[in-house]
Amino acid sequence: MREITFGQAIREALAEEMRRDPGIFIIGEDVAEAGTPFKVLSGLVEEFGPARVIDSPISEAGITGLGVGAAMTGMRPVVDIMFGDFIGLAMDQIANQAAKVHYMSGGKLKAPLVVRTTLGATRRSAAQKIKCCTSSRALCRKVSTLFPLESPTSNVLVEIFRL
User: Fold this and answer.
1) What φ, ψ does residue 28 adopt, rounded to 5°?
2) Residue pLDDT, tens place only, 35-57
3) Which domain holds residue 90?
4) Residues in a beta bridge with 117
C-alpha cells in the first residue's frame, strides 16, 4: 500500500470528489493562492479555478454561514477553517443552523457540508493556534466528527466526503 501524508490524502480526496461533482467547492482563508498555510490545498485552484476554490476574508462565522446556505441550495461546500482553535466562532452555524435545518424545515431542507480544519499545528503559531478542542464538536447532535489519527489513504477520505 502506498504511504502518503494527511495533506496529500486530503488534497487527493478533494480533487477526486471535485472532478466527480461540479457542485463541490472549497471556501476559506488562503485556500486558493496560498493553498492554506500548510500547503494542503496547493494546486486545486489551478485545476478547478477561483470559482470553486475561493479565498475568503477572515470571518469563520461568515465562511461557515455561506457554506450552510450553499448546502441548503444543493451545493456541496467544503468550509476550510484555517486553525481549529477558531472553529468555535463557527459553532452557531454548525450546531444551530446546519445540524437543525432539516428539523426546522419539516424535512424539506438539509445542509450537507464538510468543515475542514487543522488541529494541533506546530509551526510556532502561538497559543491561539495549537490546542485541540475536540470534545465540544463531538457532543453536537446531527454533526459527524472525524479525527483521523494516522495518515489515511485518499480512498478513505473520499468515502467520508460522500457521507
Assistant:
1) 170, 180
2) 667 788 889 999 999 999 999 99
3) 6-161
4) 81
Rounded distance between C-alpha atoms, residue 139 and residue 120, angstroms: 20
**pLDDT digit string, tens, across residues 133-148:** 555 555 566 666 665 6
Number of structural domains the chain divides into: 1
Answer whether 153's CB lies under 8 Å from 9's CB: yes
Please tell me the total number of residues recorded for the chain in this structure. Answer: 163
Classify strands 114-117 and 76-81 as parallel, antiparallel or unpaired.
parallel
Position 100 in a domain: yes
Question: What DSSP assignment string belongs to 95-158?
Answer: IIIITTHHHHTTTS-----EEEE--S--SS--GGGS----HHHHTSTT-------S---HHHHH
Residue 1 lies in a domain: no
pTM over 0.90? The answer is no
38, part of any domain? yes
Burial class (CB in 10 A: 0-12, 13-18, 19+), 51: exposed
